[in-house]
Specification:
Mean pLDDT: 75
Distance between the termini: 89 Å
Largest sheet: none
Oligomer: single chain
Number of strands: 0
Order of helices and strands: HHH
Structural class: mainly alpha
Radius of gyration: 36 Å
Number of helices: 3
Helix content: 25-40%
Strand content: under 5%
Shape: rod-shaped
């Protein structure tokens, strides 16, 4: 009814005026419209995933850790403060190269 035109004036009635005349909150109409629109929506289905890998995640992680283990330096990733190092380096990958 809010989209109908008045025969006397030729203007739209408007949703607010119609709801006021019918003593009906506009939220009811908006809710009804959104429910009707939601019923017409086609649900989204995610695409199928690819094939399963031949190697499990745990086996790949173990292989990566096995490759990285011999390369680790004892000082790698440890922050060094300037107090215990006279050359004031922040990170030292090789402890023998730092002052000594």
């Amino acid at each position: 009814m809010g989209r109908k035109t008045s025969p006397g004036t030729g203007k739209l009635y408007g949703l607010e005026r119609v709801c006021r005349a019918l003593d009906l909150p506009r939220s009811t109409l908006y809710g009804q419209r959104s429910r009707e629109a939601a019923a017409r929506v086609v649900p989204f289905l995610p695409p199928q995933r690819g094939p399963k890998p031949k190697t499990s995640d745990g086996a790949v992680l173990g292989a990566i850790r096995g490759e990285l283990a011999p390369r680790r330096s004892p000082a790698r990733g440890t922050a060094r403060s300037g107090r215990d190092c006279p050359c004031r380096t922040t990170f030292a990958l090789d402890p023998a190269a730092c002052c000594g």
